[in-house]
Amino acid sequence: MRAAIYGLAGLDIASDERAFFREADAAGYILFKRNCADQAQLLRLTDGLRELSGRGDLPILIDQEGGRVARMRPPAWPTFPPAEVFANLYQAAPSSAIEAARSNARAIALTLKSCGINVNCLPLLDVRQEGADDIIGDRALGSEPMQVAALGRAVLDGMASAGVVGVIKHIPGHGRALADSHLELPVVTASAEELEIDLEPFERLRAAPMGMTAHVVYTAWDATRPASLSPTVIADIIRGRIGFEGWLMSDDLGMEALSGDFGERAAGVVAAGCDVALHCSGKLEEMVAVAGAVPAMSADGEARLARAMATVLTADDGADFAEAVAKRDALLALA
CA 134, CA 177: separation in Å to the nearest integer? Predict the structure, then answer.
């Protein structure tokens, strides 16, 4: 198994993709709006990826946060609210907000599982900061670390109850960034003491099965490299200070925060300590470059992945989609 996750170009696995994927032996795949038409199509696609890989526990990822970040959209699938609504409810009724977030996450996960998707890149544990770029904005679970951690735990638990693995992101925190890392490299100049606020939710949820790094420079820790490419940040902060022991992926290699060709980017994040490089565009020529640069996944990485995927065997709590949504909406009405 190689240390890469790939996207796909369209609604089906093309013949050239099929040949490449068979040879590349990817750790997993990630889906986007371009890959999602309806439940029947998506089931064919996810079943095809599992058959191609020969692995029943193949991680198939998606970003289905709710709000503005949702790859599966109406009319085929329901809408889900942004994280901000749970953050707002928390101010009035913390316990109700936690239960609403858990019910919403379960409803999202039931939707994903019905289409063969078993990993969701959620929750964001980025602590929202006034004046920061809006790339996080209403996607955040709040501006107070304990609240973010409490709601984040509820999201992880809700998804796990329906057999979907959660990914905490963006370690060690994107909430202060003054730029969108999709477009440029953000540089955070806060002190190590100030960054304790950003680290707290990740530390509280360090037992999460999977995590995603931030393409952000933190000058207090490494003034020249973003976290995804920094051995110092990954070893000393993510694995050390936070104590995260789960499967660690980079954010998307195609984001403009990174420089160099795709082979250099992929090799760089793995060399820095990420278990796996995440490549999302579905462009075959880029994937070929990534495949030529990434090594086999480390033994530690394989063990972390196996532990993470084993969590999808969590027993179902019995609530169905309609019940979960009704419970969420009743609680949100309190706000």
Answer: 9
From residue 245, alpha-carbon distances to 57, 102, 219, 282, 328 in Å are 20, 23, 24, 29, 31
Band of pLDDT at residue 315, cut at 50, 70 and 90:
low
Residue 289: phi, psi to the nearest 5? -65, -40
Which tokens sit at 116? 């063969």
Residue 18 has pLDDT above 80, yes or no: yes
Closest to 61 measured CA to CA, from 206, 250, 303, 273: 250
Whole-angstrom CA distances from 207 to 12, 91, 106, 256, 276 are 35, 26, 19, 30, 18
Beta-strand relationship, 210-213 and 165-171: parallel
pTM score: 0.96
Q: What is the largest CA-CA distance in the chain?
A: 54
Please answer whether residues 170 and 251 qualify as being in contact, where contact means their C-beta atoms are separated by less than 8 angstroms: yes
Catalytic residue ranges: 182, 251
pLDDT tens sequence across 166-191: 999 999 999 999 888 898 999 999 99
